[in-house]
Structure formats: structure tokens, C-alpha cells
Automatic annotation (TrEMBL):
Recorded GO CC terms: extracellular region
Alphabetized InterPro entries for the sequence: GH, Glyco_hydro18_cat, Glyco_hydro_18_chit_AS, Glycosyl_Hydrlase18_Chitinase
Organism: Pisum sativum
Protein's UniProt name: chitinase
One GO term (biological process): polysaccharide catabolic process
EC number(s) given by UniProt: 3.2.1.14
First-level EC class: hydrolase
Amino acid sequence: MARNSHTLSLFLLFLTLVGTSHAGGIAIYWGQHSDEGTLYEACATRRYTHINIAFLERFGNGRIPKLNLAGHCNPSTKSCTRIGDHIRYCQSRGITVLLSIGGGIGRYSLASVEDARDFSKYLWNTFLGGTSFSRPFGHAVLDGIDFDIELGSAQYWQYLARFLKDYHGVYLSAAPQCPFPDRFLEKITLRDHGNNGQLLFHMERYFWGCRRQRARLEAVLSRPKC
């Protein structure tokens, strides 16, 4: 559903599941258009409750992970560290900031359960609460990971979610596509919601092709334990 053409004008409805309660909020994808403004500016509008930084578009199966922020910064020159200040500013305003992995283009897949485990460690140490010599956003600690899986194999994503969930306080989100159940995310959405993290789901409110599926999606998303 989420494509690399997402800009700040694309709004998503977030359904947040916490225990037996759920609440709504506005979420956006940021990072795929050089004219969309800075992350700081997006948060300063106070319009959004969640922002997904998009995308980590290459990873898994022996690939060197690649972060693509479409001209906002270049991780290889360490120019993305300034975005870390923006991330902390957003969080100070109560906005949840996640890293979106996948997207509509790129090269990514998981080759095995062990590959999923290794990638979860990479995400934890590079973007979340761990430590690494290579942290594109410097000392900023993102709140979690967004699964925008649209390409390649549907295998092993549930294990990645499970390993990430084992790190205390990590938010997980998923962007289901129109066909229901989503072949990439079905096992995550239905089985891997646990107590250590919060599992968030979102879908495009005005993606007309999804209208017939929306009622069935919401029925699943409203369950206390997915």
C-alpha cells in the first residue's frame, strides 16, 4: 500500500491497539520527496501523532542495508545525523517516530529465521535502543519499526516481528495492502501482538480500491490480541 511516492500530503489512519483499547491518530510517511520539507517542520505542524521515516529499502539475505531518504541526506557522508535532532524534537512533542522498512521499490527479503534474528539485532543497534559505531541518526533512538513489505518473499517476517518485540518498548507497525489477508503481513497481524511492544496498523483512508476490504480489515484490527 505505501509507495515510495508518499509525501506529507498522504494521510493514513492509524489504529493503535494497546491491550483491549484502541485509539486513532494521523500518521504519515516522510522521507521520499525532497520538496516535502524537513522532519522538524512536519512535527511543528502538530497535525500528526505518528511519523514513519521511509525507507530502509535494501536488507536481508546478505545484502548491505541501505537507507534511502530521497535527497534529504546521505548516510554515507553522515549528513543524516542532523535528522536525529529532528527526531528528538518530534518525540518531545509526543509524536511517535518509526523507521519504515521495505517500500514499493528496493531489494529486500529474509532468507531464514537466523537472518531475521540478525536483522532484528541490526535494527536494534543501528536505529533503536542499542549501540553501534554506525548510527545514521546519531544518538537519536527511534520508537519502533514499520513493516511496509510489498516485494519478494512472504517468509520469515513474523520472526522478525517476534524478535523485535522481545526488545522492551519497541513499537511495531504494519501497512496491510488491499488483498485480504495480506500475504506478507498476515502472520504478523494475527499472531505476533505481545505485551512488550505495541502493534499498530494503518491503511489509506481514501485508497478507493480498499473500500470493500475495509470492514474486514477493521474487524481484525479491533481484536484485543492479534
